[in-house]
Amino acid sequence: MVRPAPPGRPVPFRQFVVKLHSRCDLACDHCYVYTMADQRWRNRPRTMSAAMLARTGERIGEHARRHQLDRVSVVLHGGEPLLAGVSDLGRAVELLRRGAAPVPVRMTVQTNGVRLDDSFLRLFDRLDVRVSVSLDGDRTAHDRHRRGPDGRGSHHRVEAALHRLTGSYRRLFNGLLCTVDLRNDPITTYRGLLAHRPPVVDFLLPHGTWSAPPAGRTSDPRQAPYADWLGAVFDEWYSGGGQPTRVRLFDEIIQLLLGGSSRLAGVGVSPVAVAVVETDGAIEMDDTLGTAHAAPGAPACTSTGTTSTPPSTSPASGPSRPGRPGSARSAVPATCTRSAAAASTRTGGAPAAASTTRRCTAPTCTGSSVTSAARCSGT
Ligand code: SF4
Q1: Edge to edge, what strands does the sheet with 200-204 contain?
Q2: What spacing in Å lies between the alpha carbon of 280 and ligand 1's midpoint?
Q3: 148 C-alpha vs ligand 1 centroid, how far in Å?
Q4: How far apart are CA 116 and CA 324, in angstroms?
Q5: ∠ CA(60), CA(281), CA(130), 5° rounding?
Q6: Bridge-partner residues for 274, per DSSP?
Q7: CA separation for the pair 47, 55 (Å, rounded)
Q8: CA torsion angle 164 170 173 178 (round to 10)
Q9: What mean pLDDT is predicted for residues 274-300?
Q10: Which atom of ligand 1 is nearest to the CA of 363?
Q11: From ligand 1's centre to the CA of 33, what distance in Å?
Q12: Phi then psi dihedrals of residue 74, to 5 deg
């Protein structure tokens, strides 16, 4: 059924992306959170506090009642939301639902999958939380980017998690999220995703800007390599009847072609009904927009591995990297601030005394602090 286009007035938010944990246990080199211009995650709490979760739930409930929504959707996001742990994650679900009551909340968690074990699945089963997993295709495609801080691929761990999820907990399976890389064969990638029989596949395009387009994208308007890649997947999907797996990007484009509206940010011009809530409670429209510019006053990483505050007027100015969106990214070197000790060494000073405790700013560090003489394990 075609959704009618909205009549040009604001639409209420129906989905809320709640950043439960601002750090991650993977170090994907295509990550829009840690490797691009906006480095505000460094100043944000690692986890959303209980008080903030309760207040967020209340505000969602107020919004839903004001706009007479019969239900809303919350996506628990990060970073990696499973880093919150089973107990805190369960409490977060209950606080958000209690705050929003009596408006029902459909709850989903978006995870990289590496920690998705039976204890999480039992919790999600008990609380009716649906699970979406990030998977970029087969092992070669996935491990091209989705690696741990030690450089090792995560595909085998994600596969094991999907095996658990699609066994006794299949009813919780919400879908797969795949970031497109032109070096991966589109059909092999699509079939690698379909092997798990996901109800929905979301294809994400790599982020870029006009000055730093995604890899393979040129200024030649006759060249459309991402459309070609997706077109090959579309032909495969369409010839298979498009069922039982939905591809959200194709569904939304078809909606637009038939005169309807899109619910997907970046597809068409329909108002986006999604709000993002950061761990400190800040509300944003679409956090991926931070790939283009560092926020005024936010710390940026310098090539020495230390943090600094960029001028408020400066655009993102990371170094170009071959085959990657260059200037849209921050200047974060691959090993930047993985340990407070390493950062201290790179700035030219002697490592601080072992008794000095400093905050570790590695995206993969999930502890609250690390002694500067001890290398942060990133876990
Ligand atoms: S799994 Fe990868 S892409 Fe997702 S938040 Fe972690 S580092 Fe970023």
Answers
A1: 246-247, 200-204, 173-179, 129-134, 105-111, 72-77, 15-19, 274-277, 283-284
A2: 19
A3: 10
A4: 30
A5: 55
A6: 15
A7: 15
A8: 60
A9: 76
A10: 7
A11: 7
A12: -120, 130
Q: Whose CA is nearest to atom 2 of ligand 1?
A: 28
**96 pLDDT tier (thresholds 50, 70, 90):** very high
Residue 146 Cα to ligand 1 middle (Å): 7
What is residue 78's predicted lDDT score, i.e. its pLDDT?
93
Q: What average pLDDT score do residues 188-217 get?
A: 91
The two tokens of residue 23 are: 């750090």
- Ligand 1 proximal residues by C-beta, below 6 Å: 24, 26-28, 31, 33-34, 78-80, 112, 134, 146
Q: In ligand 1, which atom is closest to the CA atom of 79?
A: 5
Give the amino acid at 149: P
User: According to the model, what pLDDT value does residue 269 have?
Assistant: 81
pTM as predicted = 0.79
Residue 146 Cα: closest atom of ligand 1: 2
Average pLDDT over the chain reads: 79
Per residue in 29-84, pLDDT (tens digit) is: 999 888 877 888 888 999 999 999 999 999 999 999 999 999 999 999 999 999 99
Which ligand 1 atom is at minimum distance from the Cα of 145?
2
**Domains of the chain with bracketed CATH:** 15-289 (3.20.20.70)
Could you tell me the distance, in angstroms and rounded to a whole number, from the CA of residue 26 to the centre of ligand 1? Answer: 6
The per-residue pLDDT for range 237-250, each reduced to its tens digit, is 998 865 689 999 99
**Which residues on neighbouring strands pair with residue 178, listed in sequence order?**
203
Rounded distance from Cα 4 to ligand 1 centre (Å)? 35
Look-up: residue for tokens 């993969």?
A: 364
DSSP 8-state assignment for residue 149: T
Res. 290: pLDDT tops 70:
no
Report H helices in the chain.
50-66, 86-100, 118-127, 139-143, 155-165, 186-194, 225-239, 248-257, 340-346
Is the confidence at residue 338, as pLDDT, over 80? Answer: no
